[in-house]
Amino acid sequence: MSEQTTSRSVSVLGLGPMGQAMVKAFLEAGVEVTVWNRSTAKVDALVALGAKRAGTVAEALAANKVSVLSLTHYDAMYDVLGQAVDQLPGKVIANLSSDSPAKARAGATWVRERGAEFLSGGVMSAGDNIVHPASYIFYSGPKAVFDAHAELLRPLSPQEYLGADDGLAQIFYQALLTIFHPWLLAFDQATAMIAKSGHDIAAFVPFAVRSSEAFPFFMEEFSVANQNGGWADLASLKMMDAGAQHIIDASEEVGVDSGFSHLAQSYWRKAVAASEATGKPVSTYELFRGEAS
After folding, report:
1. DSSP assignment, residue 132?
2. 142-171 tens-digit pLDDT
3. How far apart are the first and last CA of the chain?
């Protein structure tokens, strides 16, 4: 397969739900897309929509200057690209897979040592809905490489370039997931509490949405506090401990698992104990940083 000369062409390797969404976004924007995936059924479906088929990784890399990876993790990148390392010199690899910052940096080094340029990305989307108004993609890596290919990648989602550190996109991405995952669990616990109390989840949701409107206020307030060592007041920490106990009681009274709230309570109690032991308020932020016991 000969290399395309148009700047409006790209290869996508990895056709899970996110990879499929990326291919569709490229096609809808008029970008020519060559696709590769281990299982051919997913390739067939996208070829039917207008994508070009690559029978091998080598063909996918040869087809275009830029290849987007949407894989489970960075270890999969070595397995996939390792099948065609002779095709890497002169190419650009944009790895939009999720992994740790250190693994992203190591992956970037591995790709560059084999003659290709590299960008790391973290896709912040509503599931695999990359066209959702709240969706966007973090990018990090050399600014010149990002600038050269930002227009080609633009159909995927709005772009947030963070800096040259190859791990930076994953730092921001994983930090946001650190907030999102507990929220998912907390919402499940809350709605289970409503349902097992014999009430309507749908009637509760508007109040949950309304309450979430205050979250930006708390983020801004606590971000300032955390830049200065973290918020801590012994009386308030004890109040949070007591509040967590009330949540535990309300959950357990109706048979809802309260393990998540017990975990939250354990941090308030650690902060109270550290504050009393040191004679000065110790924040949960300090606990997470490992600066207090």
Report:
1. S
2. 999 999 999 999 999 999 999 999 999 999
3. 60
Q: Quick one: CA dihedral 143, 124, 181, 19, positive or negative?
A: negative
Question: Strand 92-95 and strand 32-36: pairing?
Answer: unpaired
192's tokens: 């289970």
Please classify residue 232 by burial: count the beta carbons closer than 10 Å to its beta carbon, then call 0-12 exposed, 13-18 middle and 19+ buried.
buried
pLDDT digits (tens, 9 = 90+) for 241-257: 999 999 999 999 999 99
Predicted TM-score (pTM) of this structure: 0.91
Inter-residue contact 268 to 275 (CB < 8 Å): no
Strands (E), 92-135: 92-95, 117-124
- Where is 50: in which H helix or E strand? none
Nearest to 34 by CA among 72, 74, 69, 64: 64
- Nearest alpha carbon to residue 32 among 60, 7, 55: 7
- Among 135, 137, 127, 131, which Cα is nearest to 162's? 137
Torsion of CA 13, 18, 21, 22, to 10 degrees: -50
How far is 158 from 81, CA to CA, in rounded Å?
A: 27
* CA pair distance 32, 66, nearest whole angstrom: 12
57: closest CA among 91, 27, 106?
Answer: 91
